[in-house]
Amino acid sequence: MSTRLPEPPEAGLLNALRFGTDTFRFLEGIQARFDDGTSVSIPGRPPLVVLTGPDLVGEALDRPEDFPRVPAQDAVTMIAENGLVQSEGALWSQQRSVMAPSFSGEQVTAYANTTGRRIEARADQWAAAGARTTDLHREMTSLTVRVASEILLGEDIGTERADQFHEWMQVAGEEFEFGIETVLPDWVPTPTSGEFEQAAAGIRELSEQLIERRRESLAAGERPDASDMLTMLIRAEDNPDIDYPENQIRDEVATFLIAGHETTALSLTYTLCLLSWHPEARRRVRQEADEALGDGPPTHDDLAELTYTRRVYDEALRLYPPAWGVFRQANGDVTLGQYTIPDGSAVIMPLWSIHRDGSYFEQPDTFDPDRWERRTPRAVDAYRPFSSGPHACIGRGFALAGSTLVLARLVRDFDIDVPESALDDLRLTPTLRPADGVEATIQPVGGR
Ligand code: HEM
């Protein structure tokens, strides 16, 4: 027989207010008190359900018909409403299969090698600049947006537009910070500021330019064997079985420009912060990179030797998951495990607090990359930085391969140091991001 998830003892609205105003503490409190999850009543609207148990989370993510995505929930959606990050049902399924070949093993190898070349060029610039202080998050954003555009869209957008992109994403992030409005009726953020509109228009326009140029180069017969995502999307237009809504390609391009770089930039920033605070881990990464990498750009082949670096990255994604939560909505009164989730419930799966729960991870607040060598089944089950189920991140392989190479190369050649307080002020926008950049000193390692 199914039951309702337990309610927290405090009055519903009070809980909802705490969710809106002090989200980290609210989530950590809920995580500590409920093994499976809780249902917070909110007067006049369906409950807010927080799932804390990895089994329930996995089940909900495996059932997109019962737990579809929340309409228009974040910046990506407001900028590109039909992109893969937002679409559901037939359109999602069509688009995912058009794009799947661009994410195959072969493409991941090509992506890793492109990332390797790009990080080589960036490392040379850093070395030439000598010791300096800079915003690490901005550096990582400019790196990953250029890599994403080159690999997915077949064109490097260059430094200036990459920097512009960082500004646009800052604006979008500020608009979408979780606040009290998140839990009020009609839980759909509606950013209207002129600044946001400008950022959104800028991203759409850039996407259109990239598409136009690619159409021209395809029409001119250039690079007939290209298999990047944009080429696949344009070619699919000739397939009579494929039906694109208006602006579909533009929406996908904008979506991938955002989804393909932002989380990766954040993950690199967090990993480099953790390494700055853990000198022994940094020493081990440097030693591994010294042994694995040659003189030229890092390549996909080097990954087999970078196992500790990869564990460091996995551990950083646990402690600071850039996608801190996954959001769904109950479609009808649905049964989940032993519970009934009422129709319309907002369902939050807080990766942030699940990843820091001592029931699944020994000494959960400790940065311990070697836990991924021990790989206890409970930890593996609870760990979902890329989500799971049919909507799991399509770029996971890209992100893991590319980031491991970036980390190895940067840590081999540079001391990157940030203050202990660098991540004290984190913001829960749809992604987990530093409130105001991350100031770092970057110093070439002697002899490089
Ligand atoms: C460390 C880096 C990354 C993290 C932590 C991350 C995380 C995630 C998560 C948690 C989801 C699931 C969201 C949901 O279920 O609602 C997701 C979906 C997605 N990600 Fe990533 N991602 C990363 C990198 C990338 C990259 C490099 C790309 C593109 C190349 C990408 C493209 C996407 C897309 C298109 C989806 C939607 C997939 C679908 O619904 O079919 N992500 N990502």
From TrEMBL:
Gene Ontology MF: a single term: oxidoreductase activity, acting on paired donors, with incorporation or reduction of molecular oxygen
Name this protein carries in UniProt: Cytochrome P450
Protein family: Belongs to the cytochrome P450 family.
Gene3D superfamilies: Cytochrome P450 (1.10.630.10)
Keywords: Heme, Iron, Metal-binding, Monooxygenase, Oxidoreductase
Keyword ATP-binding listed: no
Superkingdom field: Archaea
Keyword Nucleotide-binding (UniProt): no
PANTHER family: BIFUNCTIONAL ALBAFLAVENONE MONOOXYGENASE_TERPENE SYNTHASE, CYTOCHROME P450 FAMILY 4
Alphabetical list of InterPro entries matching this protein: Cyt_P450 (IPR001128), Cyt_P450_CS (IPR017972), Cyt_P450_E_grp-I (IPR002401), Cyt_P450_sf (IPR036396), Cytochrome_P450_Monoox (IPR050196)
